[in-house]
User: What shape does this take?
Amino acid sequence: MRARTSSRGLTLCAIALGFALSACASQGSYVWVDDLTETQAPDEYAIQSGDLIAVTVFNQENMSAHARVRSDGRIALPFLGDVEVRGKSPATVSRELEVRLKQYVVTPAVTVTVEESQPTAVSVLGEVNHPGVYTLNPSAGVLQGLAAAGGVTDYASLGSIFVVRRAPTQRIRFTYASLTHGEERAVAFRLHAGDVVVVE
Assistant: This one.
């Protein structure tokens, strides 16, 4: 895990955006990670913009495709047109496509695989030793983000760690104890590209 240094200007803009998103981290509504209606399992990957994915429809080559996820989070597929895939696991996209393809195939069997994934760039701000934008493994969670930023400071409020997410817009609250003591929901939570981790 390392900080992005290839473009100083881009990094500064990302940090500025992170501060803007986190400005209200101590205000307004939030949801505890344990109260989320759905969270990804540790072995699930959330598709991101820039990923190259393969959609294979069994025995239907003309419906299959290789596509790179656009900046709007969609890919173009034969028969179906634009399909939203960003933020979803490959298994979820497979199930959704099978439902939509039933109007063309009696019992479609769809496999979605990520052939080329993008690194997960997140901002880590607040009471951490080295605030900044970090590139993490696609399976990284909040604890890995904190570790990349050098850990929390002595002044950190260990009960007020937030992830600010833009799509969908939400603020998710964690405690440091839930992350370090292996509580299921907190550990299973996966960071998405563009997330902002804020330690108060």
User: Anything to note?
Assistant: Residues 2 and 134 are 6 Å apart (CA to CA). The helical segments are 8-22, 90-100, 142-148, 176-180, 184-188. The mean pLDDT is 85.
